[in-house]
Amino acid sequence: MPHHATEPLRQFNMNAIRKKVAFHTLGCKLNFAETSTISRSFPEDKFERVSPASKADIYVINTCSVTDAADRKCRQAIKKFITMSPGAFIAVVGCYAQLKPQEISSIPGVDLVLGTNEKFDIAAYIDDQGKRSETEIHSVGLSSSDTFNTSYSLGDRTRSFLKVQDGCDYGCSYCTIPRARGNSRNPLITEVIREAYKISERGIKEVVLTGVNIGDFGRSTGESFSNLIGELIRVQGIERYRISSIEPNLLTDEIIGMAARNEKILPHFHIPLQSGCNKILGLMRRRYTRELFRDRVNLIRKVMPYAGIGADVIAGFPGESQADFEDTFSFIQGLPLSYLHVFTFSERPDTLAEKLPGKVSPAEKAERSRLLIKLSESKSADFNNLNKGQTTMVLFEKSRSEGLITGFSSNYIRVEYPWNPKLAGQVIKVKLNSVSSSGRMTVEII
Ligand code: SF4
Question: How far is residue 227's CA from residue 271's CA, in Å, rounded to a whole number?
Answer without folding.
Answer: 20
